Amino acid sequence: MPVGKEGETITEEAWIARMVAGDRDAFSELVNRYGRYLYQAVYGVLHSAKDAEDVTQEALMNIFASLPQYRYQGFKSWITRIAVNKAIDYKRSKDRKKEQLTAEWGELEQVAATFSQPVEEAVLAREKRDLIRDYVNQLPEHYRQVVYAFYMEEKSYQQIAEEQRIALKTVESKLYRAKQYLRKAWEEEDRE
């Protein structure tokens, strides 16, 4: 039974009334009397000492705030229910956060997988493509048309010959000469 200020035993109703009125000693007695018990109940749900401490403190504050709604039907059962519900809510919240983090990590892994090349390699590859495009643009027009048709538009020798109204051997010859020109320009660029 709770103890009053002068050491006399008081009823549960009087003790709760003192807590509702803001009596710190009465609340301290709640913590001293039921704190360890509530901690063990919460720990049974969470299996983590740190989390159980935090949730027990929150439960005690929640119990204190809910005292005006208490209906005097089994105080220990009532506070245990509040503490266990608080622990269950905490565990659900933590599990949701963990699921969310797992989902976000999975999304990050998917994004990272789409970038198969490191950033430096991607930049160098883009610079190389730009340089090749510049060299192709410097080709004489009759070579450039064949190179674009074959490499960019992925047309066959036969299609190019028909579209440009030239012989198949001429297409082969123009592509060969364009490659030689590009190779020479590339080698000169490497020497610089």
TrEMBL record:
<feature type="domain" description="RNA polymerase sigma factor 70 region 4 type 2">
    <location>
        <begin position="130"/>
        <end position="181"/>
    </location>
</feature>
<dbReference type="InterPro" id="IPR036388">
    <property type="entry name" value="WH-like_DNA-bd_sf"/>
</dbReference>
<dbReference type="InterPro" id="IPR013249">
    <property type="entry name" value="RNA_pol_sigma70_r4_t2"/>
</dbReference>
<keyword id="KW-0238">DNA-binding</keyword>
<dbReference type="InterPro" id="IPR039425">
    <property type="entry name" value="RNA_pol_sigma-70-like"/>
</dbReference>
<dbReference type="InterPro" id="IPR013324">
    <property type="entry name" value="RNA_pol_sigma_r3/r4-like"/>
</dbReference>
<dbReference type="Pfam" id="PF04542">
    <property type="entry name" value="Sigma70_r2"/>
</dbReference>
<dbReference type="InterPro" id="IPR000838">
    <property type="entry name" value="RNA_pol_sigma70_ECF_CS"/>
</dbReference>
<dbReference type="InterPro" id="IPR007627">
    <property type="entry name" value="RNA_pol_sigma70_r2"/>
</dbReference>
<keyword id="KW-0804">Transcription</keyword>
<dbReference type="InterPro" id="IPR013325">
    <property type="entry name" value="RNA_pol_sigma_r2"/>
</dbReference>
<comment type="similarity">
    <text>Belongs to the sigma-70 factor family. ECF subfamily.</text>
</comment>
<feature type="domain" description="RNA polymerase sigma-70 region 2">
    <location>
        <begin position="30"/>
        <end position="96"/>
    </location>
</feature>
<protein>
    <recommendedName>
        <fullName>RNA polymerase sigma factor</fullName>
    </recommendedName>
</protein>
<dbReference type="Pfam" id="PF08281">
    <property type="entry name" value="Sigma70_r4_2"/>
</dbReference>
<dbReference type="InterPro" id="IPR014284">
    <property type="entry name" value="RNA_pol_sigma-70_dom"/>
</dbReference>
<keyword id="KW-0805">Transcription regulation</keyword>
<keyword id="KW-0731">Sigma factor</keyword>
